[in-house]
Amino acid sequence: MRPTGRLHLGHLVGALDNWVAMQDEYECIFGIVDWHALTSEYQNVEGISDNITDIAIDWIAAGLDPEKSTLMLQSMVPEHAELHLLFSMFVPIPWLERVPTYKEQIIQLKEKDLSTYGFLGYPVLQSADILVYRGEVVPVGEDQVSHIELCREIARRFNNLYAPVFPEPQPKLTKAARLPGTDGRKMSKSYGNEIQLSEDPNSIRTKIMPMVTDPARVRRTDPGNPDVCPVFDLHRVFTPQEGRDWVMEGCKTAGIGCVDCKKRLLEELVPIVEPLHEKRVELERNPSRVRETLVEGSRKAREVAAATMDSARQAMRLKY
């Protein structure tokens, strides 16, 4: 994850819940990729250091266990940069220009100057992040599969040019619901519509109760349509089937009002976030311990990365 701000519910259901479950099945390395933050935020670096600590706190509060997994910081493992440099020598530019997310973000982020090598080469650095640990499985959503395919092509090209050093990693598609924010758009810090993992129950209630619902439901006695209601979209993710059926029936028949719908959502949502908030408060009392966790994780990660780079240098005849 890039350190661009505190994490929200979208990160929890889209990634963290899956990562926590994977810890018991795989030998996992989770990275806070601060160099990647520079690919689009190179003009705004003031908050990166604080964001790194915030993300690490959110990770541990959500259940990532430093005793089970390696939690590391990209810039503390310089082998990422060296492997990225070596890959950049033989990766054709058209490979990068055809990446779908590159084209999309050039259009979507018109207010930023993204005509830089760093932004174009983002997938090469991402591939180095994976292959420096000879990663075999990468948990991704469907929108990132093209990046993993490029990573496989880079590994294949290296192995064909020099020697078989890298595996071709496989994507592990993770179940990730599209989570709406409080205004109905995708939950995002840039929209200001997020519910952060660090928020307390009162703050969550303050955001949920004014949420927009079915615009056609003007009065309490008007039947509603849950399929066009952002609040019900949150019910789909956080409320068990029995509760969803109750909300669906009550909304369509005007048996319940929007306030009742939101109160039921809070009954499901608050018990999920409240323990994270309490754990987070505890971790915030000793941020130096969290930073020490990243330092130790990065040290462990670097041992693996150094061994990989030794093999890569030898394959490219750069070991003297």
Structural features:
single chain, 320 residues, mainly alpha, Rossmann fold, Tyrosyl-Transfer RNA Synthetase, 2 domains, two-stranded parallel ribbon, 4 strands, 55% helix, elongated
Structure in words:
The chain is mostly helical and 320 residues long. It has 2 domains: 9-179 and 287-315, 3-Layer(aba) Sandwich (Rossmann fold), CATH 3.40.50.620; 189-281, Tyrosyl-Transfer RNA Synthetase. It is 55% helix and 5% strand. The protein has 14 helices and 4 strands. Strand 3 (137-140), helix 9 and strand 4 form a beta-alpha-beta unit. Helix 3 (48-62) packs across helix 13 (258-284), helix 4 (79-88) packs parallel to helix 14 (287-315) and helix 10 packs antiparallel against helix 13. It is elongated.
Task: Provide a concise account of the structure shown.
The chain has helices at residues 9-22, 34-41, 48-62, 79-88, 93-97, 100-108, 117-120, 122-131, 145-161, 201-208, 230-238, 241-252, 258-284, 287-315, and strands at 29-32, 70-73, 137-140, 170-173. The protein has 320 residues and is mainly alpha-helical.
Structural class: mainly alpha
Oligomer: single chain
- Please tell me how large the radius of gyration is: 22 Å
With strands numbered from the N-terminus, the spatial order across the biggest sheet is 1-2
**Sheet with most strands:** 2 strands, parallel
Q: What is the name of the CATH superfamily of the largest domain?
A: HUPs
Which percent band covers the strand fraction? Answer: 5-15%
Low-confidence stretches: none
Q: Fraction of residues in helices? A: 55-70%
Architecture (CATH level 2) name of the largest domain: 3-Layer(aba) Sandwich
